[in-house]
Model the fold of this input.
Amino acid sequence: MTRAHAPAARSFCVATLALFVLLGVAWSWDRSRRWADPRLDTAGFVTIRGEGSPAGERGTWLMAIHPGCPSCMARAREMSASLPQEAHAPRPVFLIVDRRRPPSTADLAELEAETIWWDARDVWRHRWGHRVYGEILRFDSGGRYLGTMPPGSTSPSAPGSEGGEEG
Done:
C-alpha cells in the first residue's frame, strides 16, 4: 500500500468498526427489550380465510409467512402436508406478516390452508418481537403461547405439538 492510500484504508477500517459497534448496540437493545407474551385472543389479526377464533379443543400452530418469499411458501405447503388430520392435531394457521395491504387471493392461491390471517398491525414483529419467517408459534386451545419452533420443524412429534400444556 502506498502512502497515498493509507488515509483511505484507515477511514474504511474505522467506518467498518463503527458499523459493527452500531449493529451490536442495536442488537443488544432489541434483545433486552421486554416483548409482550404472544396471545391469540388479544392479537387482533384480520381473517383472510377460515376461522378467526382460537377457541376450540385443538391447539394452534401459527406459521409466519410472507407471500413474496418462495421458501416461506414452500415451508407452508410442507407444514400443511405434515400435520396429521386427527381431531386432536393442532390446526395450522398461516399468518401473513410484513405487508401494509392485505394479500390478494392470487398471492395465496397456491396455499392450501383452511385458515389464513393477516397481521395488519405488525403484532408479530413489533409487539411480540419475532423476526423469522417460517417459524411456528404454538398455542394451546385457549390461545395461550406454548413456545416457538424454528423454520423447518414441522414434525407432529415435537413436544407439546398436540396443543396441550408442556410439562
Observations:
- The chain has four helices and six strands.
